[in-house]
Write a structure and sequence with these properties.
alpha/beta; 12 strands; Rossmann fold; 228 residues; 2 domains; 8 helices; five-stranded parallel sheet; Arc Repressor Mutant, subunit A; 21% strand
Length: 228
C-alpha cells in the first residue's frame, strides 16, 4: 500500500517513515500543506496521514481542498491539540479518523489498516474468499487452513489485489502502490512475482485466483465471503 505522510516535525516524520516501511508500506512525504496538496492531486494514495498543525496550509484546509477536488482516499488525522473542537473540525472537513499525540505506532498502524480495509468495503481484518483467507492484521494468508509461505512483496500484492476483487489493476498501479519510487517499472519483476504467487495459492490450478488481462493488468477473481 502507498500512503502519504504529512508531518512537519522531522523526527516524528522520520520515525513514521521507518515504521511504515518496516511494515511493508511504500510512502511519499510532505512537510507542509502546499506540498501535500500537490501530491494528493497527483497520486491516488491508499491513505493519507495528516498533521493538523502544518505550515503554509493547515491540515484542516488541506483536507477540505482534497475533498472539494474529489480526492477520496481515507485520511487519518494526527493532532497534538487537546480541544475536542479541533478533532470535530478535522472530521467535518473530511477526515476519517484521528489520533492524538503522543501515540504508540501500533495504534497508528491498526487505524491505518482499518481505514484502508473499510475504504475497500471490508469491515473485518480477516478477508475470506472461497478457500482463501487473508488476515490483514497478522499479514498472513491461508488456503484450506494451510498457511502460505509468502514473501513480503507477495503478501502485499495479494492483499492489494484482494481488496480490489473483480477490478482490473494495471501493472503500473500495482508497482506504484507496492514499491518505492526508484523501482524499475520496465522490468518483468511484477510478472515473476505474480506467477510465483499464483503457484503458492493455487498449486493444482483449481482456484485460478488471479487472471492476467493482456495489455490491461491483473484481476483477483475469487468472490468475497460474508461473515456469518
Amino acid at each position: 500500500m502507498r500512503i502519504l505522510l504529512v508531518e512537519d516535525e522531522e523526527l516524528l516524520l522520520a520515525d513514521l517513515q521507518k515504521q511504515f516501511s518496516q511494515n511493508g508500506f511504500a510512502y511519499d512525504s510532505a512537510t507542509d500543506g502546499e506540498e501535500a496538496l500537490f501530491l494528493g492531486r497527483e497520486h491516488d494514495y491508499d491513505l493519507a496521514i495528516v498533521d493538523l498543525g502544518l505550515p503554509k496550509l493547515d491540515g484542516i484546509s488541506l483536507i477540505q481542498r482534497w475533498r472539494e477536488e474529489d480526492r477520496n482516499f481515507p485520511v487519518l488525522i494526527l493532532t497534538a491539540r487537546g480541544m475536542w473542537q479541533d478533532k470535530v473540525a478535522g472530521l467535518e472537513a473530511g477526515g476519517d479518523d484521528y489520533v492524538t499525540k503522543p501515540f504508540q505506532f501500533e495504534e497508528i498502524l491498526a487505524r491505518a489498516n482499518a481505514l484502508i480495509r473499510r475504504s475497500a468495503g471490508f469491515a473485518s481484518p480477516k478477508l475470506r474468499f472461497e478457500n482463501l483467507q487473508i488476515d490483514t492484521g497478522a499479514k498472513r494468508a491461508e488456503v484450506n487452513g494451510r498457511v502460505l509461505e509468502l514473501t513480503a512483496f507477495e503478501y502485499n500484492a495479494l492483499e492489494y489485489l484482494a481488496l480490489r476483487s473483480g477490478q482490473v489493476v494495471s501493472k503500473t498501479e500495482l508497482t506504484e502502490h507496492l514499491y518505492d519510487q526508484d523501482f524499475d517499472r520496465d522490468s518483468n519483476v511484477i510478472e515473476v512475482f505474480i506467477a510465483r504467487l499464483r503457484k503458492k495459492i493455487d498449486p493444482e490450478s483449481s482456484l485460478k485466483p488471479i487472471s492476467t488481462l493482456r495489455g490491461r493488468g491483473y484481476r483477483f477473481e475469487l468472490s468475497a465471503q460474508q461473515e456469518s
